[in-house]
Write a structure and sequence with these properties.
This protein is an all-alpha fold. It is about 45% helix and about 0% strand. It has two domains: about 30 residues; about 80 residues, Cytochrome c-like domain (Cytochrome Bc1 Complex, Chain D, domain 2). Bound molecules: heme C.
Length: about 130
């Protein structure tokens, strides 16, 4: 019985061995430049905080929106806060209807009043 417990323990220890991308079977080293990096969730105004809560997970660094937009706008403007040409009506339309791979954002998620504040924040941020 004691032997069985010992063997079981060894099996579990072996199963817990972590295989990293560096020592995988093919020997290919995969380096993720964003490993351990956290997204900036800071805000300096109530409107920016709303943007962080509702949009930034996709639209700040490493977000799906930023990555996909980098394919069709200059890379330094892929984050919505860096865009110079966004207008408030366009932002509201994109959010309510969805655009490309972005799902539409309903009034249950973001109210009209909140979306107007987010749009204003983005227009001002882009102009700076
Ligand atoms: C689930 C992820 C996700 C969330 C949340 C999200 N977006 Fe997006 N958004 C995207 C993606 C992806 C695109 C790029 C669409 C494409 O080109 O395929 C995009 C594109 C846009 C665009 C179009 C930009 C352009 O150059 O045409 C606007 C404007 C926009 N988002 C605004 C917002 C706003 C405002 C919010 C928050 C209320 C928001 N998004 C939340 C994923 C998201």
């Amino acid at each position: 019985m004691r032997m069985l417990v010992l063997m079981l323990g060894m099996g579990l220890a072996a199963a817990a061995t972590v295989v990293t991308a560096q020592d995988n079977a093919a020997g290919t080293a995969i380096v993720n430049p964003f490993r351990g990096v956290m997204q900036d969730r800071s805000a300096h105004s109530a409107d920016e905080a709303l943007y962080v809560e509702k949009c930034s997970m996709c639209h700040r660094r490493m977000g799906m929106g930023t990555v996909l937009l980098a394919r069709r706008v200059p890379a330094d403007q892929a984050e919505l806060e860096s865009r110079e040409a966004l207008t408030a009506p366009y932002i509201v339309l994109a959010a309510r209807q969805g655009i490309g791979n972005m799902p539409r954002i309903t009034r249950a998620e973001v109210s009209d009043e909140q979306l107007a504040r987010i749009a204003d924040y983005l227009v001002i941020a882009g102009a700076q």
